[in-house]
């Protein structure tokens, strides 16, 4: 049995944000969530790197998923993930633009088929047994009338904005599936194109990237700092309200940063969690 992923989140006073900079790991029982500060607050539930595993997810208004939806992006992999996401009860009422913001999801380096320019030459490395996968049924799961009816918004280097009835405000979200080059998986970028790619990120309330910025939850079990320096350098300019990323599984966690004073910031270093199950690397 795979270990159930931890629910890492923040423990802080949400009204005063009185402990910026503190990292807290909190294991929520999805059935017993802390109350919202007020009815009109929006609860974002952040997950990543689920790799075609399914598990109970805390209820909330908006679910954000920052990539590695699957193991290797086969049709059965996507089917498992997307049917699970469809089944989640996040209740959002759409008011404007005819968009459904329940889920914003991005791909990751394991979602091979979603990077067709790369997959067209690389598929035999991964799918010699399954055969080359057809993108059409995958896109039907991700971006069809059915997925839209379940509130799925699939972001690949683009923005989306939505308005929730509960809080009456617009939220903008930008999602990018890329991560720094490692082993020539999908959506890998070299240092030479990082700045160009990241310079295109707009200012946004919510930023989803698959990979971490340098120095922030980016230390691997082997002690490498795997985050992207160009992304880290851009953050003080973008100042997102939420930046969700995944990719380095052992670097999970959350913390609050205040953008008010310094131009750059020193996030706290974290202890690396070495309890990654053996099959987490695939
Ligand atoms: P995934 O294969 O799901 O993208 O990443 C799984 C694990 O591979 C991460 O938790 C991390 O241990 C390792 N990994 C992924 N990308 C990198 C990288 O760029 N550098 C290093 N050293 N390890 C990585
Ligand atoms: Mn992953
Ligand atoms: Mn990854
Ligand atoms: Mn892997």
Pick out its properties.
282 residues; alpha/beta; four-stranded parallel sheet; four-stranded mixed sheet; globular; disordered C terminus; binds guanosine-5'-monophosphate; binds manganese (II) ion
Short description, anyone?
By secondary structure, this protein is α/β, with parallel strands linked by helices.
Describe the structure.
20% of the residues lie in helices and 14% in strands. The chain has helices at residues 75-87, 116-127, 135-142, 145-149, 191-199, 229-238, and strands at residues 44-47, 62-65, 103-106, 152-155, 158-163, 170-176, 179-180, 188-189, 206-209, 242-244. It is of the alpha/beta class and 282 residues long. The chain contains six helices and ten strands; from the N terminus they run ββαβαααβββββαβαβ. The model is unreliable at 1-20, 91-102 and 271-282 (pLDDT under 50). One manganese (II) ion is lined by residues 49, 51, 68, 108, 110, 247, 249.
Helical residue percent? 10-25%
Low-confidence stretches: 1-20, 91-102, 271-282
How much of the polypeptide forms β-strand, as a percent range?
5-15%
Total count of strands: 10
The DSSP helix count reads 6
Q: Major beta sheet, specifics?
A: 4 strands, parallel
What order do the helices and strands follow? EEHEHHHEEEEEHEHE
The molecules bound to the chains, other than polymers, are: guanosine-5'-monophosphate, manganese (II) ion
Structural class: alpha/beta
| Outline type | globular
Alpha carbon gap, first and last residue: 14 Å
Q: Main sheet: which strands, in order across?
A: 1-2-3-4
Rounded mean pLDDT score: 76
Return Rg in Å: 18 Å
């Amino acid at each position: 049995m795979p270990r159930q992923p931890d629910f890492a989140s923040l423990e802080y006073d949400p009204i005063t944000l009185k402990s910026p900079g503190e990292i807290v790991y909190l294991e929520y029982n999805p059935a017993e969530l802390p109350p919202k500060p007020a009815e009109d607050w929006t609860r974002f539930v952040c997950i990543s790197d689920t790799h075609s595993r399914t598990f109970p997810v805390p209820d909330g208004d908006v679910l954000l998923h920052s990539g590695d939806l699957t193991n290797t992006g086969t049709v059965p992999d996507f089917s498992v993930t997307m049917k699970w996401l469809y089944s989640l009860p996040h209740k959002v009422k759409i008011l404007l633009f005819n968009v459904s913001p329940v889920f914003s999801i991005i791909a990751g380096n394991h979602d091979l088929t979603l990077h067709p320019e790369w997959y067209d030459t690389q598929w035999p490395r991964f799918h010699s047994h399954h055969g080359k996968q057809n993108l059409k049924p995958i896109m039907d799961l991700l971006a069809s009338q059915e997925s839209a009816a379940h509130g799925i918004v699939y972001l690949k280097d683009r923005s989306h904005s939505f308005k929730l009835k509960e809080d009456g405000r617009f939220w903008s979200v930008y999602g990018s599936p890329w991560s720094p080059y490692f082993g020539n998986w999908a959506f890998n970028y070299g240092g030479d194109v990082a700045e160009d790619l990241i310079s295109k990120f707009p200012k946004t309330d919510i930023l989803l990237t698959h990979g971490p910025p340098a120095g922030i939850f980016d230390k691997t079990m082997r002690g490498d700092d795997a985050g992207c320096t160009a992304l880290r350098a851009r953050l003080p300019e973008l100042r997102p309200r939420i930046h969700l990323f995944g990719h380095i599984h052992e670097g999970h966690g959350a913390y609050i940063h205040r953008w008010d004073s310094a131009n750059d910031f020193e996030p706290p270093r974290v202890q690396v969690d070495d309890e990654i199950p053996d099959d987490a690397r695939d």
